Amino acid sequence: MLGFLKNPIVVTAEINMNLLALTAMGLISRLRGLSYPRAVVFDEVYYGQFVSLYMKRIFFVDDSGPPFGHMLLALGGYLGGFDGNFLWNRIGAENSLITQSRFMLLESILIFFILLAVLSYLKFYNSQSYSSFSGSWWFWLLLTGVACSCAVGVKYMGLFTYMLLLVITGLHFWHMIGDQTLSNVSLMCHFLARGLALIIIPVTMYLSFFYVHLALLYRSGPHDQIMTSAFQASLEGGLARITQGQPLEVAYGSQITLRNVLGKPMQCWLHSHKNTYPIRYENGRGSSHQQQVTCYPFKDVNNWWIVKDPGMQQLVVSNPPRPVRHGHIVQLVHGITTRYLNTHDVAAPLSPHSQEVSCYIDYNISMPAQNLWRVEIVNRESDTDVWKTILSEVRFVHVNTSAVLKLSGASLPEWGYRQLEVVGEKLSKGYHQSMVWNVEEHRYGKSQEQKEREVELHSPTQMDISKNLSFMAKFAELQWKILTLKNEDTEHKYSSSALDWITMDTNIAYWLHPTSGAQIHLIGNVLTWASANVATLVYMCLSLWYLVRRRRRIYDIPEDAWQLWVSAGGICVGGWAVNYLPFFLMEKTLFLYHYLPALTFQILLIPIVLQHLSNHLCRSLLPKSMFSALIVAWFSSVYLVYCTFSPVTYGEPSLSVAELKDLRWKDSWNILIRKR
Amino acid sequence: MGSYYINRTFFFDVHPPLGKMLIGLAGYLSGYDGTFPFQKPGDRYEQHNYMGMRGFCAFLGSCLVPFAYLTVLELSKSLPAALLTAFLLIFDTGCITLSQYILLDPILMFFLMGAVLSMVKCNTCADRPFSTSWWFWLSLTGVNLAGAMGVKFVGLFVVLLVGLNTIYDLWDLLGNLSLSLVLFGKHLLARVLCLILLPLALYMAMFAVHFAVLNKSGPGDGFFSSAFQSQLIGNNLHNVSVPEYLAYGSVVTMKNLQMAGGYLHSHWHLYPEGIGARQQQVTAYLHKDLNNLWIIKKHDSNTAGLLDPSSPVEFVRHGDIIRLEHKETSRNLHSHQHEAPLTRKHFQVTGYGINGTGDSNDFWRIEVVSRKIGKLIKVLRSQIRLTHVATGCILGSSGKTLPKWGWEQVEVTCTPYLKETPNSLWNVEDHINPKLPNISLDVLKPSFVEILLESHMVMIRGNSGLKPKDNEVTSKPWHWPINYQGLRFSGVNETDYRVYLLGNPVIWWLNLVTIGLYILIAIPATVTLKRGVQLTSELKELSQVLLRGGGQITLGWLLHYLPFFMMGRVLYFHHYFPAMLFSSMLTGITWDTLLRFCTGFLSSSTTARKVYGGGILVLVLLIMYSFYLFHPLSYGMIGPMASDPSSPMAGLRWMESWEF
């Protein structure tokens, strides 16, 4: 990094040598004994699963990030060996980065792309001054965009760096606007080129990741249920097997199953069965004692309902079918028991503020049937839209009481077989997914008699016509699910808070040998972390000092040194800040490895600060040589610490209990000591 | 809430006390006696005197109009712009509704606008620093900041606004080389004094008054730590005298150490089927109750020996293995490897056994944080950790609220992750042991700073604890500027007198459009300036107003709006109103500038003036007419709902989400 900044124009052979040497060192330290341990380490469990899912082309959703990183891993596995994606780092002896990049985890890929993006932006910016719109100018600009999109594609954390680069580009461009030697036309060209490379290309690439992701994963898998019916229908083998060939338009006489759109606490279908509500609940409230209506999380013949025209008796589809449209009034007949879906002014079993929903039984107690429902298509395009299988999201509004059929989310007690409660919501405030249903399975009913109909209901649906979602619709849905899918607020033994990271108060145990004391930890090189912190602090104080002095027109350092100080340091400190500070606002479970991208930037700052100190603050020879000596001492102690901790970085050799105890430099570290 | 001040009983609320104190004061002066319970919306006031409090709020709410008028006048030096802003605020149904009732928002907005106004005034005095008026406005800014912070934490945003403005100001002064460093130091000191020290002092004073007035025990006690409670008259910890060291056979209550942590509690009810083992529930409960009492017993000896008055007292020591028996139900505190009801990775804690006879899963090791083995355990002051002997997990309270079967009390679990957090630490609060002498404990007396810090922690926790429940429809920040959905203030049914908090849609949508418009104008203006294009002095002045004045206001709007997107707590429509004030001021400035700019191209100055005046007039008339249409929203309406076509408001239901 420093080399590039110092020699932005002439990339000499010497620097190439340096670069090669560093790369080699990095590779050696990371690839050493890579096949060891031959066991699954920490989150490898997790990502490894995803890789195998790719191999099998099974659809999955992971809320930790977009699919690009998983795909890369899969590709790596596919090509026959995982290669250390980490190619380039200034300081070769950083234990935590080594640990992290040795295993199949996403962070190393992320850091690689982040650094690539920053590097290529700097290259681009430097070539800017002498050759705008030249080949290398374009190359580095485009590479910046590509690397950014890859970083975002690996993990959403990459977004922070992307934003940082956008802001820096904006600032640089702002200076260009002020440059009056540039014509308006060339300014416009510059603007468009940047827009193309840094916005349009990343967005397109991001979309293409999803395109490939969806194209590769066309089989149904473990996470189908969280997607909508329409999405599931597009996957091979899942719902598609059932829904393929269903009639599209729901007509009077259609036999349907209704799935609640919310899908929480679990996906379920509107259901009824012979059992009635208990006359009195445990708390003494009374019920209508009519047939229970619930939401049932499993496929069942009792999930079938028939759409009936209130004005006619027949339960079959006429020829030609009369489609149901938005605003039509229907009755819903439960297929097996032929009772009508009904709601009335009786408190629901668990949500007393809402109305009970039942299948109507006439007990001759002057409780008339109230079984008319108005169909409202929520996602309609016009008011005459036809109710469509899978695609339409429908609300059922009760005609007499204007209550809306809703999944309350509570599960019924024993008498209701722990199925989910369905209620009529009187105060239907706005739109909520728990009030919206869609037709999942559907066929045109043909049997006149109840006996025949039962047979028909038990038989699987089969008809033709298929409907596929467009890529954009699938993308939007998947993206939304990834962003909103919340893992349960889990606590993990090795989770930590963002504040612990700066001081390295925490570690993560990745792997422990089943018998010996050998173990692998994610644990930082304490010295490096501390010096990185010091560097950041020094940088900020010095910057503030210079800034105030410059404001009073006192110039301590030459202008070009100041520019370098600002741009190089700005990127490093900015990179550290954008990759670290947002974690304070996040509520998810945090681990030490989340800090690694920020740490990388912080470490890059060390040489910048050192260089600056030696160039500008140590003017005479004596302090200069002392400074060099200090640096040598620092480097060797970093190496020493690295050597000390290498057993827990590489997992070999195994250490004795006493040695492990010695390694426990901080009380908060959790080094596993086997009890004898 | 004002009632509490008049009755001087301690209560807990998530907002700082100033707003409620002012309402209390207004009520006190107007003869309200603090007896009305204020329990739920819709209750009748009957003979209670409430007009004083309402009048006070309405008065503060009305002050917003002149404040906004003066601010815009100062920023743009244009009377029409200021008038336009004033009309926007006068005829906005939302602002009217919000300032008519006994709420904190009018008070908050009063201080907020006051701070903005005095900040702007102070900026115009910048050419004669250290003059009387400069000092006056600067210190008034400070006072208003303290006021805004003291009503609601949202006041923090205006503090940020003023802070940024001050930093910018100082930076400007620093670059002015004609100013000596000494003089700059004076500037800095003056600002530190007026904008940091003065508000801080006022803020502390406000809390001092709050704690001084509320010196009686009340419903808010349980939210606070034992030390805090000992300060309240009527609380059982006030002037407490208890045995100092914990002994076997003592009856105790255990309070969780986390802020707003509850007492360890159990009751006859069992965990419902399907949730762990079907044994008696153990929860954390915030209120004082007989079911919070536990008896400390030795793990191996039976009950009888301990109750024998002649046997010597044996103290509990750090590291002892004990059994905790629930006094009311005689069941032991028990844990086992079933998953806890809410925090699935923890173990369930239950009450188990009959008459104190249980099994080995009832044994807990009692440990005091940072103490040596064998030391005695102090009541109130020792921080205790209870480790389950069989599984090695630690008793803690997860802070999550149980569903209805658990009476919405707080979950208690046994956590296998051995982290030291206040969640898993407890202290002994009540301690009853007839065999031990009582010692008065006034060592507990916390300092004012400790009380202040604690009450802030509790407020912050309370705020973040206001989480939306599952399936509950909540207001989202993006709803607000588009006036998507209002808030029902009173009345639901057709026969009720209904008041609905909803902004005047014409005004709000005008504001929304104006923000876009402002960005569209501001970007070309800055780019032109940056390109160094020569402008006429008139245009320069216009762009100055637009960028400086408009910029400040836009910053205010952003600061009062964007943070809500990151908040996890329940949000309401009325949270947008401070931002709406800024938005209205921006509208005034932007339209005025735009009209001036456009009419600048007209050839004759008389037509230009006519077109300009006409434009402003059209906007004002539009606003007034829309107010005429929508005024029933704030002044109340009776009759059928607007969804009914026969209602007079039927034609006005422009969005389906409005429910008036």
Automatic annotation (TrEMBL), chain A:
It comes from the Eukaryota. SUPFAM superfamilies: MIR domain (SSF82109). Residues 247-310, 321-378, 382-442 form the MIR domain. The chain crosses the membrane at residues 103-125, 137-154, 159-177, 197-218, 526-547, 562-585, 592-613, 625-645. Keywords: Endoplasmic reticulum, Glycosyltransferase, Membrane, Repeat, Transferase, Transmembrane, Transmembrane helix. It holds the Pfam family MIR. It is found in: Endoplasmic reticulum membrane. Coiled coil: none annotated. The keyword Transmembrane applies. Pathway: Protein modification; protein glycosylation. It catalyses: a di-trans,poly-cis-dolichyl beta-D-mannosyl phosphate + L-threonyl-[protein] = 3-O-(alpha-D-mannosyl)-L-threonyl-[protein] + a di-trans,poly-cis-dolichyl phosphate + H(+); a di-trans,poly-cis-dolichyl beta-D-mannosyl phosphate + L-seryl-[protein] = 3-O-(alpha-D-mannosyl)-L-seryl-[protein] + a di-trans,poly-cis-dolichyl phosphate + H(+). The keyword Kinase does not apply. Signal peptide: none annotated. Its EC number is 2.4.1.109. It is a multi-pass membrane protein. SMART domains: MIR. Belongs to the glycosyltransferase 39 family. This is dolichyl-phosphate-mannose--protein mannosyltransferase. The gene is POMT1.
TrEMBL record, chain B:
Keywords: Endoplasmic reticulum, Glycosyltransferase, Membrane, Repeat, Transferase, Transmembrane, Transmembrane helix. It is an enzyme of class 2 (transferase). Residues 243-299, 313-369, 374-431 form the MIR domain. It is found in: Endoplasmic reticulum membrane. SUPFAM superfamilies: MIR domain. It is a multi-pass membrane protein. InterPro entries: ArnT-like_N, MIR_dom_sf, MIR_motif, PMT-like, PMT_4TMC. Its EC number is 2.4.1.109. PROSITE patterns: MIR. The chain crosses the membrane at residues 51-72, 79-101, 135-168, 188-214, 506-525, 545-564, 571-591, 611-630. The keyword Glycosyltransferase applies. Signal peptide: none annotated. This is Protein O-mannosyl-transferase 2. It comes from Apteryx mantelli (North Island brown kiwi). The lineage of its organism: Eukaryota, Metazoa, Chordata, Craniata, Vertebrata. The gene is POMT2.
